[in-house]
Amino acid sequence: MKTIKSGILLFVTLFLGNGLVFAQSGDEGAEPARTILRFTCINTSDDSIQLKSTLTVRRDEGSMNLANALVQYFAVGSEEDVLISEVKTNYQGIASIKIPTLNSFPRGEMDLFNFKAVYEGAEKYESSESEFSLKPAKLKVSFYEEDSVRYVKVEGTQLNIDGTETPLAETDVNLLVPKMFSMLKIAELYLDETGIGSTEFPADIIGDSLGNLTVVASIEENDIYGNVRASADNNWGLQKHLISPDRPSRELWTPIAPLWMIITLIIMLAGVWGHYVYAVVQLFRIKKSAKANEHKS
Questions:
Q1: Cα–Cα 20 to 30 A to 201, which of 1, 35, 41, 172?
Q2: Residue % of the chain over a pLDDT of 70
Q3: Number of structural domains in the chain
Q4: Considering the domain boundaries, does residue 252 fall inside one?
Q5: Most confident listed range (2-16, 71-85, 129-143, 180-194)
């Protein structure tokens, strides 16, 4: 029995030793890790443009956010790039700044701003960059009632190179409500040639205990305007305490989770704890078997 234990100990020692040597040798000759810079620009309702980048590192075992990394933002012109700002990423790998819509940065074709985000890299990480183009635009959200029917109204304008504003016409706009982990789409409307569109507000959207909620108007990844967002608050939501306790509504945005989500979670937890139980049973069987072999010897 002592011989068996000594053999197992020797095997573990050699295995861990080889693993440590492999790890150290791998670090010495390791190449810089690949980085991915996801860059987007958002036209906001406060006459500014948000420049937002997410920096991640791609490794064999997966991706992770890169914190405290310096990201440079440039306005791309016809002659040379103009440095706007330098921002360090937070713990989520995000570097974000806002710039005024009215500025002297050069514009390209179709009055588009051309921006570039650059990460110059480091000893352990490769450099990466990304570009984004958009025309300054703005949305305004308002609410009104007509014949006891509630409506959401969205007005869109675009800022031309000469400083004038014209309607943001013939564009689809999504209406969203922020929830705990995501945005819930509640409606969609179309801006006509005057840049105005409206739609009926759904009567089954749940707000807080007073019915308050935030409605977000959003244009996503448009070829000209990029991303445009605006928001406004109202109290047209259903109050949480008015939900009937004997007939609860099981939705993703309600306090009571859907049955399919509960069942999925139970199955996953049962699988995890089942593996723990199986491992413990096997340990007891191994211990029992070892004692039986000692008595035989």
A1: 41
A2: 84
A3: 4
A4: no
A5: 129-143
Residue 24 is encoded by which pair of tokens? 């150290």
The helix (run of H) or strand (run of E) holding residue 88 is: strand 82-88
Question: How far apart are alpha carbons 80 and 66 in whole angstroms?
Answer: 28
CATH number of the domain bearing residue 98: 2.60.40.1940
- Distance between CA atoms of residues 160 and 158, nearest Å: 6
State the chain's mean pLDDT as an integer: 83
Distances (CA, A) of 110 to 72, 117, 134, 227, 240: 25, 21, 9, 16, 47
Q: Phi and psi at residue 173, in whole multiples of 5°? A: -130, 130
Same structural domain, 142 and 236 = yes
User: What residue numbers bound the domain in which 229 lies?
Assistant: 137-242
Query: Rounded to two decimals, what is the model's pTM?
Result: 0.66
Q: Which amino acid is at 11?
A: F
Task: Note the pLDDT of residue 238.
Answer: 84
**Whole-number pLDDT of residue 129:** 93
Distance of CA 145 to the CA centre of its chain: 35
